Amino acid sequence: MSGYEFITNSPKETEELAVRLALLLHEGSVVTLEGDLGAGKTAFTKGIAKGLGIIKNVNSPTFTIMKEYHGGRFPLYHMDVYRLEDSEEDLGFEEYFEGEGVTIVEWASLIKEQLPKERLDLYIYHLGLEERKITFFPNGEGYVKICEELKNYESTSD
Ligand code: ADP
Ligand code: MG
């Protein structure tokens, strides 16, 4: 499976893609983000927050592992597990995955074993200074539908 590919040419375009995705997410949605430092994982998460109607600025939770944002359509649970000392450690992630909000996990491969089976995996690749390739790999029917909708939107909007 080669996934669903999207190209963005600026942080703004990445944010717009994330806003459109956020509009299709619901309670218990889980989205993982992989990509090098500076790829745009946090930038993408800012767009998710915006799409959920969260006004507070999202920044990288690198030193806190998890930050919660309320006041939007759903709570946003933003995890960055980059600095997790021991990937086997159970910090109660499951409660968030199954919670009432949308969970975004940066560097999710570090807690692979703890991720829910149904989720949307995103890989962000640097193509140039401001060019990124964002590939969506859906796990589960619901996420396949979401990817199809995003692709349909893309092909009708330009
Ligand atoms: P990560 O969380 O993956 O380490 P960040 O989102 O913190 O990365 O940083 C991404 C950086 O790259 C930001 O400074 C952002 O402005 C810049 N950038 C340039 N082009 C893009 C793009 N197309 N999409 C996302 N970010 C971009
Ligand atoms: Mg980050």
Automatic annotation (TrEMBL):
GO BP terms in the entry: tRNA threonylcarbamoyladenosine modification
GO cellular component: cytoplasm
UniProt keyword Cytoplasm present: yes
Recorded superkingdom: Bacteria
Cellular location(s): Cytoplasm
This protein's UniProt keywords: ATP-binding, Cytoplasm, Magnesium, Metal-binding, Nucleotide-binding, tRNA processing
Main location: cytoplasm
GO MF annotation terms: ATP binding; metal ion binding
Pfam entry (one): TsaE
Family, as annotated: Belongs to the TsaE family.
Name of the molecule in the record: tRNA threonylcarbamoyladenosine biosynthesis protein TsaE
Provenance organism: Metabacillus arenae
